[in-house]
Design goal:
Length: 89
């Protein structure tokens, strides 16, 4: 939502651009699960499973440098984002 508001302010006329909006930095699932467990104050046993589909044996990261530069977008850290999501449940 923050990135949409920034783009509306920047491009008030019929000017269209595409921006990648992503988080602070690339994260793995363990980091995300740990952040959720911390915010919920629960202890979760993390169990990693082998990837079943070899076609999905790669990672994808978004480059949000254009949004940071042109919109002055500031990505939030994972703990802050999860805290806000849990608060709004």
């Amino acid at each position: 939502a923050k990135s949409i508001l920034l783009s509306i302010k920047k491009f008030k006329k019929n000017k269209f651009q595409i921006f990648n909006i992503s988080g602070y930095k690339p994260l793995n699932m363990i980091t995300i699960v740990k952040a959720i467990s911390t915010e919920l104050k629960i202890k979760s046993k993390i169990r990693l499973l082998k990837k079943i589909n070899p076609l999905f044996n790669f990672d994808i990261y978004m480059d949000n440098s254009k949004a940071i530069k042109e919109l002055r977008y500031k990505p939030s850290k994972i703990n802050y984002t999860i805290k806000k999501m849990i608060k709004n449940l």
